[in-house]
Amino acid sequence: MSAEEIRHAVFGMDIKKLTPESISILLNSLPQAEEIEAIGNYASEHDGNIDKLGKVEKFFFETSKIQNLQLRLDCLLTLQQAPDRLVSLEKTLTNIRQCVVQCSSSSDLKRVLSVVLAVGNALNAGTGRGEAYGFQLANLERLKDTKTTNAAINLLHFIAMKVAELEGESQTDLLRSMPLLTETYNIVTDDIKTELVEMRKKVEQCQRSMEVVKRPPRPPIAAPRMNLKTMAQADLIKYQAQRAEEKKKRDEYIPDLYHDTIQSFIESTVPKITELESLHTQVMTEFRKFAKSFGEPDSTKPEQMFGMLLRFSRDLLQAHRENEARNKSDKKKKKVFRKKKKKVVNEDGVTADATDD
């Protein structure tokens, strides 16, 4: 875009021309204060004639005439980015809240954890760790580390087998009742708070900008036509020059929509930010209550707890599938073994079963 096109787009708050991408490019292309000063000094020394300047310098000179250009562009960028970011933040917080509800109300999870606890107590019977009332979720990730003497299966395989035996095979798929774990385990909750703080700061900057960005003066109203025939020559020349100047100013005038647009943006955005800040507080309070019910410390973050539950859910299902594959393989081997059994006749003519070694 030319400098004049930029001026029209900035004053008109034209988001079709000034997209976030083009604004970012413009912000990176704006001249520094010392460059503006040098070009301004050159223009003054040459009575405003900048024909000999390079294309970039001419662009700098023209854009420098747009008052508060950087501030205007910053706020226009915020205006375009804020709605989508706020929608995304609301979805993230809602997902955390709903995931807490899913995990809290999952009867599948409760039954599986009961099996884990029962197996653990059975293994630790007669020790100081027997007859436990519960365990830390972090212990779920160690179940795969405990293997049989021949390392054929691990403790998680055994638990998956007991869950399928006692509760049914479908209970090994915990994600049926907690599907949102796959969307919440990688959320960085600290970023949510940080982004809300940053968003409020940017909107407040836009609010303050309306005191800095001045509305351009409206063009002069056309002077009433005079009877040129009765005017002296000197007065006629002065009158015509005045009308020509007024017409030039009217032609150059661009309605500045900045204040009205930013004011409307602030009125709709500030309440939304306040609403999300309140939602964030509520969701984190609900999560801490949920984490506490599992014996997790207050410092536990949603992504940590959801991550542990997701990994356990996937590992349990995988262990169940491996159990099924192993059982299928064992049955196949037994079938082959039976087929290899042959009827043989001994020396006395008695039929007996024999197997190939």
How many beta strands in the DSSP annotation? 2
Biggest beta sheet attributes: 2 strands, antiparallel
Unreliable segments of 5+ consecutive residues: none
Shape: elongated
Tell me the distance between the termini: 86 Å
Query: Over the alpha carbons, how many angstroms does the gyration radius reach?
Result: 38 Å
- What does the average pLDDT come to? 85
Classify the secondary structure makeup into a structural class: mainly alpha
Order of helices and strands: HHHHHHHHHHHHEE
Strand content: under 5%
The helix content is 55-70%
Number of helices: 12
Strand order of the largest sheet: 1-2
Structure explained in plain terms:
The chain has helices at residues 3-11, 20-29, 33-45, 55-63, 69-105, 107-123, 155-167, 181-184, 189-212, 233-252, 258-293, 302-340, and strands at 342-345, 351-354. The protein is mainly α. A two-stranded antiparallel ribbon has the order 1-2. Strand 1 (342-345) and strand 2 (351-354) form a beta hairpin. The chain is elongated, with a radius of gyration of 38 Å.
